[in-house]
């Protein structure tokens, strides 16, 4: 994949997000784009970050001229594997991207992740939350975390069961050192859009329940990380605040 292709594809995805927000009656900056960089060469990730800065600068100029709408936030970067995060992050540090960890995390890898990630989206058990909290206590600011929920119940998918998700969220919210910023899921692997949408609605209902419950530490828990290359429009229509996109920007892995 050439850098120009990455640039074009990123612009196209930005456009898809913008149009999906418009169709859903949501503000153009209501959804943040996370680029899932797993198995992608460093050059492609760098090209995407640079292209994003250019696109946003152009968008800001346009918004200034029209005295119009908000411009979406810079892209986030997401990594699934600790090893890849540790390898890539230092080499992109000059661009200061915000890394989110979006893969399964073993307790013994927590320190490596905390060196680079601003948010761990994949907290699916109280033990991991406790370990993160203990290590994050030494950081200057709390670590952002999301609770990952397996809304579809597919056995191959990570995430806490929906029935245990609220309790886990409240556990996380009460931990010092962590800031609960919302909920994450990988949508059902189904050709039936209604099945996928039902999972997204379940995540949103859980989010609403936790946030309106008003327990300590839940005030910032309004994020919904859901939707990928093939279904980001659906996820945005159902309330996503972060969509995680890999192949649509970088091509196949
Ligand atoms: C790879 C990955 C994505 C992106 O998937 P695409 O289909 O390539 O857009 C999103 N979320 C997670 C957790 C991933 O591992």
From TrEMBL:
SUPFAM superfamilies: PLP-binding barrel
Keywords, in A-Z order: Pyridoxal phosphate
Annotated positions of the N6-(pyridoxal phosphate)lysine modification: 38
PROSITE patterns linked to this entry: UPF0001
Pfam annotation, one family: Ala_racemase_N
Stretches assigned to the Alanine racemase N-terminal domain: 69-252
Keyword Oxidoreductase: no
Keyword NADP attributed: no
Similarity comment text for this entry: Belongs to the pyridoxal phosphate-binding protein YggS/PROSC family.
Described function: Pyridoxal 5'-phosphate (PLP)-binding protein, which is involved in PLP homeostasis.
Protein name: Pyridoxal phosphate homeostasis protein
Organism: Cellulomonas fulva
Phylogenetic lineage: Bacteria, Bacillati, Actinomycetota, Actinomycetes, Micrococcales
């Amino acid at each position: 994949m050439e850098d120009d292709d990455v640039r074009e594809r990123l612009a196209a995805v930005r456009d898809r997000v913008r149009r999906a927000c418009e169709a859903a009656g949501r503000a153009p900056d209501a959804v943040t784009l996370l680029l899932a960089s797993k198995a992608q060469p460093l050059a492609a990730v760098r090209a995407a970050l640079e292209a994003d800065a250019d696109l946003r600068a152009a968008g800001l100029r346009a918004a200034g001229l029209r005295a119009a709408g908000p411009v979406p936030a810079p892209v986030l970067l997401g990594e699934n594997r600790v090893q890849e995060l540790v390898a890539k992050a230092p080499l992109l540090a000059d661009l200061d991207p915000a890394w989110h960890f979006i893969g399964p995390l073993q307790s013994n890898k927590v320190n490596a992740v905390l060196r680079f990630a601003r948010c761990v989206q994949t907290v699916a058990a109280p033990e991991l939350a406790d370990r993160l909290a203990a290590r994050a206590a030494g950081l200057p600011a709390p670590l952002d975390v999301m609770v990952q929920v397996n809304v579809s119940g597919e056995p191959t998918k990570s995430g806490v069961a929906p029935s245990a998700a609220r309790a886990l969220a409240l556990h996380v919210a009460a931990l010092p050192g962590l800031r609960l910023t919302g909920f994450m899921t990988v949508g059902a692997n189904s050709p039936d859009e209604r099945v996928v949408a039902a999972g997204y609605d379940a995540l949103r209902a859980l989010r609403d329940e936790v946030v309106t419950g008003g327990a300590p530490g839940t005030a910032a828990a309004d994020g919904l990380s859901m939707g990928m290359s093939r279904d980001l429009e659906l996820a945005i229509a159902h309330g996503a605040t972060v969509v995680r996109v890999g192949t649509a920007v970088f091509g196949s892995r």
